[in-house]
């Protein structure tokens, strides 16, 4: 049993490592080529900019393709065993196909654990590290006015705040507009700055400041090179508003879900992201279960390529269903728990039922 387990695990892990490496490298190359202009604008045009960008993007790419790569590796492993009659040899030795899958479970559990760590810890860390290399590019007043509708909106005790873009993990804000209203909700002051840089003393230093004051005698406009904005808002607050799900750890999503920190999305959206993060190990096991019935199906005149294509199609169907379910959970149409766990449970049940029927024939 130990020899068979090591043999199956070695075949599975070797194929998985090659597939993940190949797909991740290809995805990184396409990403770098497609976003070459954006990389130059955001991170500069030095020799090390693109390699550094690819290095910090690697964990996200690896986490993205690991489930599909697991499906391919499991298909190739099980189909090769069936093609070379090794499955018959295992069964002749008194080992059922279920036992073969059971022997592959430790390797699958190892992949699931690594996948969770990379997606939940390494990827957010890498994206935050990459954000530190962003160039600080303030915007002019006209650009700030155009971007107000699609920027980040929030408020502090004094101002309604709009930020065109968040850079360097929230430490630098581009295109800042501060709007102050009186008790009657009338606008009495508007401050527009090309950028705002967070200082160690807890204050924000404004750059290229235009202050417009509205009073009964008529509006007045003053300009200055810099200014000070005192607010309890911190870089992390702005980063939370602009970040995507891959930039948060499970602990951060839990805090955002409870509403104890600043966030622009509803609580059920963060809850959906959290539940989906927790379901990642289960998705890896589902990929193994999806490969099992395809490898064992006794279809007359079916070639290895056709069975591989059938397994890949089944995987694509799962990812489409999972994506639709996540979108429904983010919009609040279904419960976050259902949105995250329903696709893995449904596909695992279907694959298990098909495998039981095939093995029972």
From TrEMBL:
It holds the Pfam family LptF_LptG. GO terms for biological process: lipopolysaccharide transport. It is found in: Cell membrane. The chain crosses the membrane at residues 12-30, 61-79, 100-118, 278-297, 304-321, 333-356. The keyword Cell membrane applies. This is LptF/LptG family permease. InterPro entries: LptG/LptF_permease. Its main location: membrane. It comes from Vineibacter terrae. Keywords: Cell membrane, Membrane, Transmembrane, Transmembrane helix. The keyword Cytoplasm does not apply. One of its GO terms (cellular component) is ATP-binding cassette (ABC) transporter complex. It is a multi-pass membrane protein. It comes from the Bacteria.
């Amino acid at each position: 049993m130990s020899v068979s387990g090591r043999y199956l695990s070695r075949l599975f892990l070797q194929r998985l490592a090659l597939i993940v490496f190949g797909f991740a490298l290809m995805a990184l190359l396409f990403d770098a080529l497609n976003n070459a202009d954006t990389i130059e604008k955001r991170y500069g045009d030095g020799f090390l900019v693109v390699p550094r960008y690819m290095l910090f993007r690697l964990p996200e790419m690896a986490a993205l393709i690991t489930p599909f790569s697991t499906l391919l590796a499991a298909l190739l492993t099980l189909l090769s065993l069936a093609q070379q009659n090794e499955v018959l040899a295992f069964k002749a030795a008194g080992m059922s196909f279920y036992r073969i899958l059971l022997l592959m479970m430790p390797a699958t559990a190892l992949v699931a654990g690594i996948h969770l760590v990379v997606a939940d810890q390494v990827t957010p860390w890498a994206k935050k590290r990459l954000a530190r290399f962003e160039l600080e590019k303030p915007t002019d007043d006209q650009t700030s006015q155009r971007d107000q509708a699609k920027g980040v909106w929030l408020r502090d005790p004094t101002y309604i705040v709009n930020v065109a873009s968040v850079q360097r993990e929230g430490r630098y804000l581009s295109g800042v507009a501060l709007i102050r209203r009186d008790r009657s909700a009338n606008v009495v002051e508007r401050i527009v700055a090309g950028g705002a840089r967070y200082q160690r003393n807890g204050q924000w230093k404004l750059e290229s400041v235009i202050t417009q004051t509205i009073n009964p005698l008529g509006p007045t406009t003053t300009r200055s090179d810099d200014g000070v904005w005192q607010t309890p808002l911190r870089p992390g607050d702005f980063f939370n508003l602009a970040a995507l799900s891959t930039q948060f750890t499970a602990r951060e999503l839990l805090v955002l879900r409870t509403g104890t920190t600043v966030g622009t999305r509803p609580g059920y959206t963060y809850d959906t992201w959290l539940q989906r993060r927790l379901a990642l190990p289960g998705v890896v096991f589902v990929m193994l279960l999806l490969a099992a019935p395809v490898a064992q199906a006794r279809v007359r005149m079916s070639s290895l390529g056709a069975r591989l294509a059938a397994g890949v199609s089944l995987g694509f169907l799962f990812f489409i269903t999972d994506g639709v379910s996540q979108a429904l959970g983010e919009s609040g149409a279904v419960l976050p728990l259902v949105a995250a766990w329903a696709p893995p449970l449904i596909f695992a049940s279907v694959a298990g039922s098909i495998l039981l029927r095939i093995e029972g024939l």
